[in-house]
Write a structure and sequence with these properties.
By secondary structure, the protein is mainly α. The protein has 7 helices and no strands. The longest helix is centred in the C-terminal third of the chain and has 30 residues, at about 160-190. The radius of gyration is 21 Å and the shape is globular.
């Protein structure tokens, strides 16, 4: 037996990449439910203590959406990863602010929230532009989310409760559209007879 035969290393077959289910419906559902609860509170519809949205901001809008964003990296979807990763972090950050900082911030809470909402309105603006290359439904989600952020940061800076209420109304509409986009992702991804239209991209590549 030759030396080359004794030292030969057997070839290892490359492992096939694991298939990953689309995480977007989960991310959209987490975003929708938390946005709905907070927007209902902003609109003045809820009658509880006003914090019914808070635990879901951490668990569903935050952690679940952040996980969906990380799976979007696995799917090589930079738009979905950035969107879900950012809005998941938004909800976690908002939970931490309301739970631990707002109780001691006094009259500065409105100003603090105004700056936070303004910052996310800036982020949402360029995500809105890029969403036009995805689908009409996804574009509508970002369009109304941008309007809601604008109304809310103006309302917080000006301490205008009517503006905040109107932002809540627009936020509810945003949540309903996001739920529809989530449902469409599930129905269309299952490959069955039930399909939900999402509309063509507004901007074609």
């Amino acid at each position: 037996m030759s030396t080359s035969d004794e030292t030969a290393v057997p070839a290892v077959a490359a492992a096939a990449p694991l298939a990953v289910a689309d995480p977007a419906p989960l991310g959209l559902a987490g975003f929708a439910l938390t946005t709905f609860l907070l927007s209902a509170a902003n609109a003045g519809w809820t009658r509880g203590g006003g914090g019914e949205w808070l635990p879901y901001a951490l668990a569903y809008g935050g952690v679940a959406q952040l996980l969906a964003g990380m799976w979007e990296f696995r799917n090589k979807n930079v738009f979905g990863a950035t969107a879900f990763g950012t809005y998941g972090s938004f909800w976690i950050g908002l939970f931490l602010y309301v739970r631990f900082i707002a109780p001691t911030a006094g009259e500065n809470v409105g100003n603090d929230l105004g700056w936070i909402l303004l910052a996310f309105a800036i982020f949402t603006l360029y995500m809105l532009l890029f969403s036009a290359q995805a689908s009409a439904v996804l574009f509508s989600v970002f369009f109304f989310l941008e309007i809601a952020f604008i109304l809310l940061f103006i309302g917080q800076f000006a301490a205008n409760t009517n503006m905040i209420k109107f932002g809540g109304y627009v936020g509810v509409l945003t949540a309903l559209l996001a739920w529809y986009a989530s449902a469409a992702g599930i129905a269309n991804g299952m490959g069955g007879k039930l399909r939900l239209p999402v509309g063509p991209p507004l901007i074609h590549n």
